[in-house]
């Protein structure tokens, strides 16, 4: 296609906001001239739904709760003075607490001051803080960050071994709204035991971020933890990074949380604009709709050409996929909606999967994330007058052109640099785009019934494990196959689940299960030693 035509299309559709240093280029999505105007009625409905949400309407009817992450950076918009005051007080308390940690006024049990912090959480209680930490971290940060974000014992050991003797200087932040999330509880108990083994009092090193009156909140109060910060039921985990969930770790690592909030607040203001061409979140939502047929028919590939934004695709996986992956729409019809997200960083993607993106199945669209500033100072010329950053820029735009020349669509988002303010802009941009797109496809972005179903299934499996281990513990006969055990405990249909439980139990020393392997592994026999 003629480059002059593409340049004119670029100029026509570029959305640029100098005040927040953001550009959104949709010119490489193949929509027709009348597409934006044809979508205007649906967008008016989406704007109306968003306004209702921001005014405090019940946006999550499953749980009868509001959705108010936008108030976190604009407390004056909160529907009640109580909520406004809670937000403002929490931000002040976070800043004061971080200052006390940095100065040594708040100190650990035996050391002079804290030098590290360890976040224990799962999902949004870890992904947002990890993304911000990795994007903004420097070698001279006042506290070094660590994260436990799973229920993997080997993962616990890896992180705790890395901390080592510095555990005595480590502040542990346990993040769980309900206080009953299994992965977070498990991590907390493992960490508490690690402190005990080193002769340390966990409560002298522990902070909770949780809901008022939760199991975790009551525990922290009873054991006199150093501090407690709130999680509110109107903030979902995947949109919690501008709450205490993300702000406390960021402040402890030495970041300017007020600049992060300011970037998000300014972007929120811009993305409330009901003029589609001037609203970058509206343009994103509409391009997603066009690229996927409004049915999630193509995947969204996130390619940030900046090492510091490596975790952005992981962060967006939860924000986008947990919000939009729904079986039913708002009318109760089965629709199986969703938008799959994956990504890598440029130009690593050049040597990973750009080959398939250009020449393979055309089942995706790309979002390039471009950062204009390479580094704080001047760069070395690595070839004639070109710097490493020039090469990275060339790889980005070369890949964009190569994909477009082969009929592959893309969006390009440009920010000036990676700092607290620009991260706030990106976070707010995608939060708004997800909410608007959800309205376009008529689904609820603010509940997660599939997640709850998975938790229930896991609970049932653990209950089954207890039952079969109790049976094996009282059984004195010969070793049994999984099928024989299933029949013996009157659950013949659960033979596969029982086999999987026993296979795992026999691989570990915890339950005393011994496995006698056979040539057909599923016919192996088990007993408790």
Short description:
The protein is of the alpha/beta class. The chain is 45% helix and 15% strand. The model has no long low-confidence stretch (mean pLDDT 96).
Polypeptide structure, described:
The structure is a single chain. The chain is an alpha/beta fold and 529 residues long. The protein is 45% helix and 15% strand. It is built from 18 helices and 18 strands. A six-stranded mixed β-sheet has the order 1-2-15-12-8-11, with helices on both faces. The longest helix is centred in the last third of the chain and has 26 residues, at 449-474. The mean pLDDT is 96.
Mean pLDDT: 96
**Fraction of residues in β-strands:** 5-15%
Which residues form runs of ≥5 with pLDDT under 50?
Answer: none
Portion of residues in helices?
40-55%
Largest sheet: 6 strands, mixed
Instruction: Kindly report the oligomeric state of this protein.
Output: single chain
Name the strands of the widest sheet in spatial order: 1-2-15-12-8-11
Q: Radius of gyration over alpha carbons?
A: 26 Å
Overall outline: globular
